[in-house]
Amino acid sequence: MSESIDRQLAIDVKGVTRVFPGRVVALAGLDLNVRYGEMVAITGPSGCGKSTLLNILAAIDSPTSGSVIVAGQDLAHIHDLSGYRRHEVGLVFQLHNLLPQLSTLSNVELPMFGCGWSAHQRRTRALELLAEVDLSGCEQRLPTELSGGERQRVAIARALA
User: Fold this and answer.
1) How far separated are the first and last CA of the chain, in Å rounded?
2) Which residue in 136, 125, 114 sits closest to 158, CA to CA?
3) CB 114 within 8 A of CB 95
4) Would you list the DSSP string of 22-84?
5) How many whole angstroms separate alpha carbon 138 and alpha carbon 136?
6) Residue 57, Cβ neighbours under 10 Å: how many?
7) Closest Cα partner for 58 from 30, 27, 90?
8) Distance CA 106, CA 21 (A)
9) Are strands 73-74 and 9-20 parallel, antiparallel or unpaired?
10) 145: helix, strand or coil
11) Which of 9, 97, 103, 134 has its CA 20 to 30 A from that of 22?
């Protein structure tokens, strides 16, 4: 019999362990509950498993054992993980991960491909998001032409997309 899913929880992590090759234990029996509307900071020293946990929550990696339920969805049972990431998760990477050959606008439009939106809808939304992060007028600039802070804001706009 399957456990019932607590719909009040945005994130429900139970007994998650992640062991990497060489018996490197990044997470050992982690439990975490985050309610909708709650803000949580994940802190700790380098190498304690923060990025591993975030990668598991984003379905970029999977746990060795345990269960992860995000927005009522058990990640182990999702067949379209790219759809999950597109609709449920926004990622802002430490190193921005912008594509250097694409303009600022194109970098923000990128995650909207595959959503069924027209080119006009994607462009309009990307322009709105760039305005929200105070980057109007920088749409055609390449990532190498932006400051570190501007690149971070492009990454935030892309995550919001």
Assistant:
1) 38
2) 125
3) no
4) TTEEEEEEEEEEEETT-------STTSSHHHHHHHHTTSS--SEEEEEETTEEGGG-S-HHHH
5) 6
6) 21
7) 90
8) 37
9) unpaired
10) helix
11) 97
| Two structure tokens written together for 66 | 């345990």
The pair of three-digit structure tokens given for residue 25, joined into one six-digit string: 């234990």
Number of other CB atoms surrounding residue 21 within 10 Å: 5
Q: Two tokens at 17?
A: 């362990």
DSSP reduced 3-state for 146:
coil
Q: Which residue has the tokens 């006009």?
A: 120
Write down the residue that tokens 């984003």 correspond to: 58
The 10 Å Cβ neighbour count of residue 53 is 22
Instruction: Write out pLDDT tens, residues 106-130.
Output: 999 998 988 889 999 999 999 999 9
Closest CA to 67 of 18, 108, 103: 18
Give the 3-state secondary structure percentages of the chain, helix then strand then coil, rounded to 5. Answer: 35, 20, 45
Give the residue carrying structure tokens 């892309």: 158
**Both tokens assigned to 9:** 């929880």
